[in-house]
Amino acid sequence: xxxxxxxxxxxxxxxxxxxxxxxxxxxxxxxxxxxxxxxxxxxxxxxxxxxxxxxxxxxxxxxxxxxxxxxxxxxxxxxxxxxxxxxxxxxxxxxxxxxxxxxxxxxxxxxxxxxxxxxxxxxxxxxxxxxxxxxxxxxxxxxxxxxxxxxxxxxxxxxxxxxxxxxxxxxxxxxxxxxxxxxxxxxxxxxxxxxxxxxxxxxxxxxxxxxxxxxxxxxxxxxxxxxxxxxxxxxxxxxxxxxxxxxxxxxxxxxxxxxxxxxxxxxxxxxxxxxxxxxxxxxxxxxxxxxxxxxxxxxxxxxxxxxxxxxxxxxxxxxxxxxxxxxxxxxxxxxxxxxxxxxxxxxxxxxxxxxxxxxxxxxxxxxxxxxxxxxxxxxxxxxxxxxxxxxxxxxxxxxxxxxxxxxxxxxxxxxxxxxxxxxxxxxxxxxxxxxxxxxxxxxxxxxxxxxxxxxxxxxxx
Length: 461
What we know:
nucleotide-binding, Heat Shock Protein 90, 12 helices, membrane, elongated, single chain, two-stranded parallel sheet, alpha/beta
């Protein structure tokens, strides 16, 4: 005989059977718990306004746009208040004092809706319901609409616009549910011969809440996008600055390593070059050579960190002012008329300043080729009272994108790299447009540790 299947042989089927035959009381308790959570959330949303006190359109840049909600609210109150009193007295035969009180409670809170629309809704919603109850015994000649009068419908729709522009979607859903519930509850007391308008108000309020909340969501998304773009731009600028500093550090490694190597060689060869050197001096030179070698090893480790992105170092020697002539010739071949003026005395420029001056000229010429092709350019490099002045001036250029060969190429970091190099050497940089439409780059780099005050920049032609 075949044994009967057990529950352990079919665990999935047993679980599905248990779920299908779940006791009704358990399902009912779960449903009631979810319903209670839903209404608790709606209650919290209806009693917790979003950014209370902040007027509608307060973030607009134009003052007139910020004043627009107040103007609209005053216009609605000024027109609806007397209209509501007139309709209640003439059409619904309500006592004048009671009509004034109801009309004030239904319309004046629209002014509060500019800054606190949710609180204004509580006041107006309560006033509308109480006003409808006051019309139960009305026997006016034109009491045709129930439970809302035409001014109530208009004012309530205006209030829905303010709510949709400010409150959360859960709060708007709660407002819409409360509006429908109140309308259908009052429908049970509708007098004979009147026309119900609660469905019309329910549809209009739902549409207005949906549209205005969509407009608000779109505005919030655009604002967050702008904020994110600002953050991204700041992050890109910071990353560009760090990349340029790392590149400058890699270039200066060769300069510093050369000096450290010279110190090591001099310290090692001192006992052989200097006769009758005392033992204490020999030990000092040996210590100097050892420290220099350790410094070189640390610099190599630093360079490996700066090149951790896998980039390869340049094999060629670092350029200097002796190669500026080649830069100018490449710029001329790219279609930019350029001339160079090199003063005497630049042969003894310190290596760091020599490299920085070359890179500044390179970046300036690359910017001319990129942004002002065809503009006449003048490059001037001269030492003056302990300072090296680098000046690159170009006039108005032809239209961008003329298709010239870009012979002068920079690092792609432009003014950022110039500023970092000038800051590194303790100099100053002056850049800006010229009155005739050109551009000027003037850098002053110190040739000594304590130079004389920087001279005035050369006047632009």
